[in-house]
Description:
Keywords: 4Fe-4S, Electron transport, Iron, Iron-sulfur, Membrane, Metal-binding, Transmembrane, Transmembrane helix, Transport. This is Cytochrome c oxidase accessory protein CcoG. By secondary structure, this protein is of the alpha+beta class. It folds into two domains: 341 residues, no CATH class; 114 residues, Immunoglobulins (Immunoglobulin-like, Sandwich), CATH 2.60.40.10. 43% of the residues lie in helices and 19% in strands. The protein has 18 helices and 16 strands. The strands form five sheets. Strands 8, 9, 10, 12 and 14 form a five-stranded antiparallel β-sheet that branches. A hairpin with an 8-residue loop joins strand 15 and strand 16. Helix 1 packs across helix 4, helix 4 runs antiparallel to helix 6 and helix 6 crosses helix 8.
Amino acid sequence: MNDSPAPATAKADPSVKMVSLYEKTRKIYPKAVTGLFVRWRWALVWLTQIVFYGLPWLSWNDRQAVLFDLGSRRFYIFGLVLYPQDFIYLTGILIVSAYALFLFTALAGRLWCGYACPQTVYTEIFLWFEKKFEGDRAARMKLDAGPWTFDKWRRKGGKQLAWIGFALWTGFTFVGYFTPVRELAASAVTLGFGPWEWFWVLFYGFATYGNAGYMREQVCKYMCPYARFQSAMFDKDTLIITYDAERGEPRGSRSRKADPTTLGLGACVDCNLCVQVCPTGIDIRKGLQYECIGCAACVDVCDSVMDKMGYPRGLVRYTTENGLAAGWNRAQMWRRALRPRVLVYTAILFLIVAALGTSLALRSPFKVDVVRDRASLARIVDDGAIENVYRLQVMNTTESTQTYRIEAGGIEGLRATLDGDLRVGPAEARWVTVEVRLDAMHAQRAGSGSHPIHFDVQRLPEGDATAPVSLREKSTFLVPR
């Protein structure tokens, strides 16, 4: 028998809110808003999507201007023809992107998230479809809460068809960067895609449909790692969206004609519009939160309320923690922008961009790989000479036919046997077998074993090539015992 006393029941604390771990996610209905930052965001939506959807249809030298041809392992970017060996340039672009993100974040917070991130861009587009079919915030909430009538089916069905059509178009465009888009369009008419085209069109379309149509703010809040480590790049001079509590509190509703000083109120009328327009559903008045993507919708709507009330703008605005605490003006805050962290990020970014641009400008117009013939490492031919067989791959990175001359050196008496010069077509890679011989006298003088040699491959002047260019690739020559 358990004689221990029952635990005393604690008094209910009204400030404690019980939240179930399995509570259903509350759907957010962002209210439409107009203003300067909304116009900036839509300008970037148009810019990014015109580039994304239009780029595959541009032609360059009678081919698609931007095409990542994985089958033939050629990557065409306007006048550049890149091979898998040029992977270093992709690494450079990723490093530039990372440092640019660090720089913009240290300077002005989550600019990327609020204006140009694909999740933000496609969420804006899908919300636009939703508003066209279902109306603004109040109408959508009423529609969702109401019964399934014919009008509700019509509106919801129209929205879903628009979402699915746009998502499939997005998936089709994505695949158009890897399969020539005009060939892909011809296949789309008859639904004659290959298995991989079908997979990626549907996969990328489904990802767009799910992320922008349903997950929305959950991607930013829970799936995106940037929200978790952004604070490491913030400091008190980072430009962020902030609520001026000193000016706004105590908040409260009032008429337009009322004097807030007489009522003992601040500038905030507690209209809650800043929460209603927020795509992640946060209250900016509670301070900086990791869920804030810096879209500035709350700035636009608060400025419109201040205009209606006849109060100065800027209750919610872009500012810095130091600027807000010290009451700095815009000029004083921008002077603090050029602090050591920003200067270091800028210098590193400039050096990497300069190095990447210089490397591309000085890039050789062809590449050479040397592979020893494993079937026959070394052999003695009829005249007593030692012969090694090599396979050379010459990759023409220009878009005109080029002629190359191949010679071998490194050991006295070494000569390469090749039937004339090698011609390689535009953006083509050709393998050629080269027999390298060392006569008996020089082989005896060199001695048995492995000896370093090199191949000199020279591009001869022809067509667009006005000057010869040479490459030297190292290898080894085996002399048997």
